[in-house]
Design a protein that fits this description.
four-stranded antiparallel beta sheet, about 10% strand, 11 helices, binds zinc ion, about 45% helix, 2 domains, alpha+beta, single chain
Length: about 290
């Protein structure tokens, strides 16, 4: 009687035990497997980049050689900055390797010297800015327009005058403007201060150039309104798009008067981290939206 019970019992224990040992050996194989994800040559290159691919999700394996090359030329940059700048495209001359920008009609649309809008792109929902806050005929995308009017109103309550003196510009308007500058100063010079048609952030309908109605907008930095904007613009979703010490990242000379709407969340993050929208875009938006 007892014998009849013990034998099947031992058999079951053997089967379960064997099963567990087999399962564990499979697990161990899986643990050791990923080491062969990169070739020896790739792993050597990744070591030179402090294996940054494990720390940031915007690392792109296809650009490994570009990262290494850029790091050689910029030994003082952190590896994270190297990856960020190569992803922006800064290892190549402006207006080379250009692409049509994705996310048209979104507030996180990026326009710079590598990303352009189609010549027939006109943002949806363009609306005129209230005349109390703008020169006549100034338009912005609805959400940006409402935010700018709130900003202008709050500034007024605080005793400041902030007026939109340039906002949405069509492709053809920018084309005329740029061609005029090229005729005047030559292309090389014109490229330092004016965007080529399709590449102007003004075509997004999310940008205002401001003044205080008294001093020329190019001297906006000298005004008390500029100080107010530095402290408050992000609360309304606007950022200073081309800051003074970031010309090598934005590709544009410092423009104290040019503000870009990106929404309160992105504007606040950028404000607090002293970064540019180009950097924010490649780290948090590109490939994720
Ligand atoms: Zn501007």
């Amino acid at each position: 009687m007892k014998k009849n019970v013990i034998i099947p019992f031992l058999f079951i224990i053997l089967v379960i035990g064997g099963g567990i040992m087999f399962w564990r050996s499979q697990q161990n194989d899986q643990v050791t497997e990923p080491q062969s994800k990169y070739t020896k040559e790739e792993q050597e290159k990744l070591d030179l980049l402090d294996n940054i691919q494990e720390k940031i999700d915007y690392f792109q394996m296809d650009d490994l050689n570009r990262y290494l090359e850029y790091k050689k030329g910029h030994p003082n940059l952190s590896v994270q900055d190297v990856v960020t700048r190569v992803n922006i495209g800064l290892d190549q001359p402006y207006y080379t390797n250009t692409k049509e920008t994705p996310y048209l009609n979104q507030i996180y649309l990026l326009s710079n010297k590598y990303l352009y809008m189609p010549s027939d792109y006109v943002p949806e929902n363009l609306e005129s800015i209230a005349s109390s806050c703008a020169r006549s005929g100034m338009q912005l995308v609805q959400e940006a327009k409402e935010a700018f009017e709130e900003l202008c109103q709050k500034a007024k309550e605080d005793g400041y005058v902030i007026r939109a003196m340039s906002s949405y510009r069509s492709y053809s308007y920018q084309e005329d403007l740029y061609n005029r500058y090229v005729e005047q100063d030559g292309q090389e010079e014109a490229d330092t201060y004016s965007a080529r048609p399709g590449f102007s952030e003004h075509q997004t309908g999310l940008v205002v150039d401001v003044d205080n109605k008294q001093i020329d907008y190019t001297d906006f930095e000298q005004t008390k309104e500029f100080k107010w904007m530095q402290e408050n613009a992000h609360r309304f979703g606007f950022i200073l798009r081309y800051p003074k010490d970031k010309e090598d990242i934005t590709g544009y000379t410092y423009e104290a008067w040019h503000y870009r709407y990106v929404g309160v969340d992105i504007a606040t993050y950028i404000h607090e981290h002293h970064m540019t929208f180009d950097e924010y875009y490649v780290q948090f938006i590109e490939g994720k939206k």
